[in-house]
Each structure stands twice: as C-alpha cells, then as structure tokens.
Amino acid sequence: MKKVVAAVLVFLYSTGLCNGQEIPLYEGIIPNTKHTGIKEEHRFDPVVDSLVSKVSVPTLTVFRPAHLPPHAPVVIICPGGGYHTLLIDREGRRVAAAFNQKGVAAVVLKYRLPDDAYLTNKYIVPLQDAQQAILQVRKHAAAWGVDTGAVGIMGFSAGGHVAAMAGTHFDTASIRNPAAISLRPDFMILINPVISFSDRTGHQGSRTNLLGPLVSADQIRFFSPERNVRPDTPPAFLAHAADDNVVPLANSTDFFTALKRNKVAAEMHIYARGDHGFLNDLPAFEQWFGSCIYWMQTSGWLKRFR
Q1: Side-by-side strand order, sheet with 236-241
Q2: Could you give phi then psi for residue 241, rounded to 5 degrees?
Q3: Angle at CA 183, nearest 5°, toward 124 and 15?
Q4: Tell me: the pLDDT tens digits for 226-236?
Q5: What span is annotated as the signal peptide, if there is one (predicted)?
Q6: What is d(CA 110, CA 113) in angstroms, rounded to the nearest whole number?
Q7: Could you tell me the domains of the chain?
C-alpha cells in the first residue's frame, strides 16, 4: 500500500495539476509527526473567514494562471494565525488567486501547527515545512512551469515568521535533501510579520505556541530572524500598519534595519492605519498588493513579463 501511495504522489507532483489542487507536502513519511487520532479542524469566522487548526498533515495547494508565462515566478504563501490556527482563505487562497491575475504562480502552504499532542520537536516543524515547500517547488519546477531561480516565500503575521525563518536559516537544513537542492528562497514578502521573539518586541502568543512558556536565550536568538540576517539573506518586501496592536511595528522596522545593515535589498511600507492584518481593508488590498507587485517588477522577478 505504501508503494502505491508513493507512486500516486510522484504522479501528482510530476504531472500537470488542476488549479487549486491540494497535494501532500511530503512524498513519504512526515517527519516529527506522531500517529494519533487528532483530526484537523475547520471553522468559519465572520471576520477573518475560513480557519484551520490542529494541522498535523501539511499540504501544498498549487495555483497557476490560465496562461502561465514561460519561466514564471512562484510565491509560496504562509497564512498567519499565531501558530495556533491558519487564515487559509484570507491570507492564502485569495492571495494566490490575486497573484495568478498578475501572471505569478502561487502555492499555499498549510504548515503544521505546533502541538505536543501530535508532534515531536514541535518548535522546528514550521521551518521544516517551509523548507520542504521550497524543495518541492524547485524539484518539480519544470512540470509546474515555474522558474527555479524565482521562488519567493510570503507570510502574514506568524506566517511571516515562518517565511523569515526560511529566509534566514536556509543553510540549516531540517529536512532530507539528498540532491542538495537550494533551500534559499529568492525573495521574501512579509506582511505585518512576527519577526522577533524578544521580550521587548516579540509577539508572546506566537512565541509561547511555538516554543512553550520557558525559553532560553539561545532559542530567542535562533528564532528571531532580525538577529540572523546576513549579506546573503534574500531581498524582502515588508508592509505593516503603524497602529498594529497585536504585532508591534518594530518587528518590521528592526528587520528592515538589519537587512540594510547587511546591504540586502529591501522595501518597506508603513501605513498609518490598518491595525493587525488590515482587517478593515485599510489599506485596501489593491494598495499594498499593488506595491508588492511593483516591487517584484522593479526587482526583476516580473521584469520579463511586463
């Protein structure tokens, strides 16, 4: 049976996929996952739409434009939710559809949410899933019609922490990668991201959900991307509201400062109003997303498709 399942997964990864098709992230055994009876939960929230929690089986949902340009860029999208849930539509599928309208392929990553009930070493699992997503996209780029040299990663809130970790710890492989495929994203898009796990600016809820109530100085250092920026860190686009009452603006400004200190190309947009997640459409989606697309064009990721 395992051989049959593996064969089916290889077929799905290596052939044309239906737009919006959800496929397993791992082609074999899912690392650090316990076999339990805990099931994934889905619920509707009138403010933020569809929520997914208790995620123990990670997936990718692939979105490609009807007419995909040759060598198209692709963005891996990590929804937010404080490491306890995922805003899978608002910060996932809808954004993927918007990218498709601009000629950009997108992949929504439903990453595992840290929980000792169904995971071992829960603290490393989100980074593990992000690296696996990058690996799978590059591994199957030819079949999916995307450019292996234009693989970006995007994250909202806690998903921004996942994306920033992938962008600052790409040389710390947490997955099997026998072909030594690059795990470095080519660019990052971070929207009101959780960056720091420090006491001063960190989002305590995300930190506690990922690491638990007791954390060491070494853990804070490793899981605070602003402390791990280097000259080879990927370029980044950041957007944040100045009145964010959940994730302090300093998360973005400190990361931007670290990028510039290391001479990494970066662009940051600070909006006076918007609170956390731009939930009241302030700024309007077209405003910040349009700026993101413009950044991709001026940075070269979309230059050939103008």
Answers
A1: 21-24, 59-63, 105-110, 72-78, 146-156, 187-191, 236-241, 266-271
A2: -95, 135
A3: 105
A4: 999 999 999 99
A5: none
A6: 9
A7: 2-305 (3.40.50.1820)
